[in-house]
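Quick review question:
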């Protein structure tokens, strides 16, 4: 039995062995991934109507890949007040957003109490909106400044009305790579512990992987396998009430940061990564081709290589666009639907937990 068939049969293989999946031609990998995708979702492509709000870019940590946080490459620091964020959330809801997605820097001026007052005020003003907030890196930072323990942070998030967690802060789990690109940030083990405990509370989250910088193929595979194991653990402890909704391979954006990467993955390398993710992550339901990092066209092509989700309208995107992505103004629902349908797929509007709302 060759390697691909062993992977499809879910045989226990190492990251080093599975990294040789990249040696297959793109069409072979794509066909295998697409067969899995078609069995699960036929020709559906999912999206949601959401709004990203980034309260601040003043950060206590210094990640070399980041172009969003205020630094000498981005000398425009800002911090929003709770009232300012509430105004943006209300405007987004008025424009059709069903999800408010809040991810910020690790701002040393925001207190523990500030975060939870923010969440309570959003849910008080917009009880019908799904509140997705705080990456595991932010949870870890809030734990560090408060000394309450990450479990208490997560329990307080539930009490304050946070509905699910985004998947940011994972970057690449290999600690050698993390030491270079995001030293001092949440460790890979703590990232996984935070999500597993969140799942044990009956809550869902996403998982990301930042790729296309200094990591090797084997590091990507190792990252996926750790997520697969964590999902199995969440299924065990959460009795299938909580877990990862989706895996999101985030393509590294090259501008305005300190990594100085000289070579970047080809379109084929990106699509192979999507396909391998679909093949290996049999227990994570969705693979998201995040158009804000891939670009709209490649994200649509990725729907032919195992991905089934595009993310959403976003309305305003600040983090990836700071590093050169063409995603600053988001997309209208009409444009996103049109692009999905023109590519030969069925456009399915979903909620944040992948309940289908309408075929558009």
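Suggested answer, residue by residue:
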């Amino acid at each position: 039995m060759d390697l691909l068939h062993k992977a499809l049969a879910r045989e226990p293989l190492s990251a080093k062995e599975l990294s040789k999946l990249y040696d297959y031609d793109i069409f072979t990998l794509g066909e295998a991934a697409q067969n899995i995708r078609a069995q699960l979702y036929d020709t559906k492509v999912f999206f949601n109507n959401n709004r990203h709000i980034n309260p601040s870019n003043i950060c206590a940590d210094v990640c070399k890949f980041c172009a969003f946080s205020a630094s000498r490459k981005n000398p425009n620091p800002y911090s929003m007040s709770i009232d300012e964020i509430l105004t943006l959330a209300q405007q987004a809801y008025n424009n059709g957003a069903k999800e408010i997605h809040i991810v910020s820097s690790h701002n040393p001026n925001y207190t523990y109490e500030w975060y939870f007052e923010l969440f309570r005020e959003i849910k008080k003003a917009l009880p019908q909106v799904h509140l997705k907030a705080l990456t595991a890196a932010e949870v870890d930072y809030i734990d560090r400044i408060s000394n309450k323990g990450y479990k208490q942070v997560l329990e307080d998030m539930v009490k304050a009305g946070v509905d699910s967690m985004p998947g940011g802060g994972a970057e690449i789990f290999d600690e050698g790579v993390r030491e270079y690109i995001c030293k001092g940030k949440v460790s890979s083990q703590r990232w996984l512990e935070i999500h597993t405990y969140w799942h044990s509370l009956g809550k869902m989250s996403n998982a990301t992987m930042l790729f296309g910088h200094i990591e090797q193929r084997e590091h990507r595979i190792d990252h996926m396998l750790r997520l697969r194991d964590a999902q199995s653990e969440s299924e065990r402890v959460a009795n299938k009430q909580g877990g990862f909704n989706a895996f999101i391979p985030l393509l590294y954006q090259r501008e305005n940061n300190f990594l100085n990467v000289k070579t970047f993955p080809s379109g084929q390398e990106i699509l192979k990564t999507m396909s391998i993710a679909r093949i290996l992550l049999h227990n994570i339901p969705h693979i998201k081709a995040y158009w804000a990092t891939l670009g709209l066209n490649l994200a649509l092509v990725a729907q032919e290589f195992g991905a089934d989700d595009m993310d959403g309208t976003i309305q305003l995107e600040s983090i990836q666009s700071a590093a050169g992505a063409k995603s600053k103004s988001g997309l209208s629902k009409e444009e996103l639907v049109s692009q999905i349908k023109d590519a030969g797929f069925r456009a399915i509007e979903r909620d944040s937990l992948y309940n289908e709302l309408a075929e558009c």
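Why it works: The radius of gyration is 19 Å. The chain has one domain: 3-359.
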